[in-house]
Amino acid sequence: MQAKSGVDMSEKNTAVIVMAAGFGTRFKSKRSKLLHELSGKPLIRYIADTLAELSPAQVVFVLSHQKEEIKSVIGENDIFSFAEQKVLDGTGGAVRAAMPALKNDIKRVVIIPGDTPVIPLSLIADMCNASGKAMLVAAELDDPAGYGRVIINRDGSVKAIVEETDLDDDRRLVPLVNTSIYAFERKILEDGLKKIQKNSQKGEYYLTDIVAICNKEGIRFDCVRHDEPAEVLGPNNRLQLSDLARLVWHSRAEILMEEYGVTIIDPYTVYIDEKAEIASDVEIYPNVFIEGGSRIEEDVKILENCRIVNSRIAKGSVIGPNVFIADSDIGTNNKIGPFTYVRPKTVTSDGVKIGAYVETKNIQVGKGTKIPHLSYVGDASVGEKTNIGCGVITCNYDGVKKHKTTIGSNVFVGSDSQLIAPVTINDGAYVAAGSAVTHDVEKDDLAIARARQVNKSGMAARLRKKLCAE
Questions:
Q1: Quick one: which of 384, 386, 274, 287 has its CA closest to 46?
Q2: Which of 105, 106, 128 is nearest to 53 (CA)?
């Protein structure tokens, strides 16, 4: 579903350092910020996937807090390696921790924060391939509060990075902010890191101090301005995470509409995961979630308030409204909903109807079968052209084990019946309404499993009189 960048990663002696060691305290969470999900995927996984696609010579992730969990989310790749920042002593300390892990033939180093999930692959490639000896990426904000300001010389190079706490009144108005994305010749970075002094107030080493070091030694520090701040400034709190997620969801919807021929009624209220596949001429109504590796085939209509997780919806089916489908395979021209709960391992053939307030789980349903309303069918197989009446329950659990119900083709199961598994209803059989079936029903038989009705003349009046007297 993603639009490909088509960038050229020609500079293969470049390493990328990903700073992923911080706590993210403003998230007010026991979990690392990098493990929080953005539009269906952890923040750090976006960076990992982007760099895997870019494929520089080496990627070093600097980890500390919850390092094993983050490492697991990042995954394995031949170009990935890991360094630990054992003491959280600032951004300069993080880069210092990564340097020993660099291969000997690395000549250029790009540094990016681990919490910039939507940084464009093309921007990282440009920083890798650029000729500047020292560079940073900056962005202009209408409200730059909270960010370090980038002060520019007349020739366009960087004069200084001034932290928010150190700004005077004039510089506080500067809209250009530091994104913490850098590129260096390796030798310049190594030399600069040796000269960074510990900040006396916070006891940390600030990578931003390397700007002054380069200027003092006559090394030009270039500024690359990026016009889309949201792409290069990661979320600092959960409100900003929500704002960024909204942009990501909407971007995916736009790609589907413009490049894949999908109709989305309201692209601001549809939430589609990155790995989901949506075919052309699909219609999606508001408040729909399509998650994981779900696959939606041509001419499917998904009505409002539906959630589809790791499931296939085959051509021409109508889903919804108010339907939840998980880990299932829905056949062609099905009608599922409204208010239907389709649990894992539900597999349907062509032309199946699963209607209002029906719950299914681990079932196989044959062509043309109907389960119209208010039923539970679990751990069962159902043949073709069978009708399951209102309120039918497959009683699959005896308190210890699950048991299977087998229902053949052309079967009619009357309303409010219980099929007590293990039990088989063979082809063509009828089950009378209100039956509790405990034995197999043979082909074309009629099963009636209920107490015979007895009407006692006048008994209701006598009973009422007695009760009132008491």
A1: 274
A2: 128
Instruction: Decide if 285 contacts 268 (C-beta within 8 A).
Output: no
Domains of the chain by residue range: 14-232, 343-470
- What single DSSP character describes residue 431? E
Task: Please confirm whether the linkage preceding 267 is cis (ω < 30° from 0).
Answer: no
Q: Which of 46, 27, 53, 18 is nearest to 247 (CA)?
A: 46
Q: For tokens 């366009």, what's the residue?
A: 156
The closest alpha carbon to 135, from 91, 171, 180, belongs to: 180
Q: Which fold has domain 14-232?
A: Spore Coat Polysaccharide Biosynthesis Protein SpsA; Chain A (3.90.550)
CA distances from 270 to 38, 108, 250, 308, 397 (A): 14, 41, 8, 12, 37
Give the CA distances from residue 334 to residues 272, 331, 355, in Å, rounded to whole numbers and listed in that order: 22, 6, 10
Tell me: pLDDT of 412 over 70. Answer: yes
Are β-strands 359-365 and 387-388 bridged in parallel, bridged antiparallel, or unpaired?
A: unpaired
Beta bridge partner(s), residue 75: none
Q: Quick: pLDDT tens for 241-264.
A: 999 999 999 999 999 999 999 999
Closest CA to 20 of 36, 41, 34, 30: 34
Query: pLDDT by residue (tens digit) across 193-221?
Result: 999 999 878 889 999 999 999 999 999 99
- When the pLDDT of each residue in the chain is averaged and rounded to a whole number, the result is 94
In CATH terms, 343-470 corresponds, of 3.50.50.60, 3.40.640.10, 2.160.10.10, 2.115.10.20, to 2.160.10.10
Set 65, 373, 403, 439: catalytic member:
373
pLDDT digits (tens, 9 = 90+) for 362-399: 999 999 999 999 999 999 999 999 999 999 999 999 99
Radius of gyration (Cα) for the chain, nearest Å?
A: 32
Cα torsion angle, 325, 329, 332, 335, sign: negative
Task: Give which of 32, 133, 134 is closest to 73, Cα–Cα.
Answer: 32
Q: Are 4 and 46 in contact (CB under 8 A)?
A: no
Check whether the bond before 42 is cis (ω within 30° of 0). no
Report CA-CA distances (Å) from 210 to 165, 177, 183: 18, 16, 12
Helix intervals (H) in 311-376: none
Q: How far apart are CA 336 and CA 338, in angstroms?
A: 7
Q: Mark whether 36 is an active-site residue.
A: no
C-alpha 125/C-alpha 387 separation (Å) is 59
Length of the chain: 470
How large is the average pLDDT for residues 336-356?
Answer: 98
In this structure, the strands spanning 176-185 and 134-140 are antiparallel
